[in-house]
Amino acid sequence: GMAAAVLFVAILDQVANLSVTLRMLGPVSFSADLFDREMLGKLVRFSSLNVLTNAAGRASKFSSTIIIGATLGPAAVPFYAIADALTQKAWSLTKGVTSVMMPLSGRLHAQGRHDDLAIVLVQTARVLLAMSLGIAVVFVVMGRSLIELWIGPEFSVETYPLLCVLTAAFAVTMVSGGIPSMLCAAGLSSCSR
Length: 193
Prior knowledge:
The protein is mostly helical. The protein contains seven helices and no strands.
């Protein structure tokens, strides 16, 4: 039932995207003559690395509950999953800032505007620091109440300390969230994020 609905919506979404693209671009033709072999090789290597990195990230994200269950027992999984769900929402809030780093950094690097690139790096770190500290304060100060309202008071005793630990990890790592994209765009690092 639900899986079929999700599949149907995904197919419908792709058909809609394709139709809008074709309407905007007109007929699109693909020919082997249109591809530069060297550029195609670069795209395949980049895409392969990106797919592997994303797969590893997803495996890491979804295996954490399995590891918690295996080491601490199945009873510990819901408490971790609740705290993890809240911190994952926080990560998604910061994606708006970090998602623009690669194209902006690539453009500045290509134009040789290294001073501007350094300014963007510092400003991005400041914005991410402010966001992560703000989110951390909300989770630490109001986290127990949020959990009680969301799930119930019986979960807050076990979940709140986990939320504090995951929030600290979030705040520490988020400050440098835009750096990998900037280094990748400048060709100084492999694109692994």
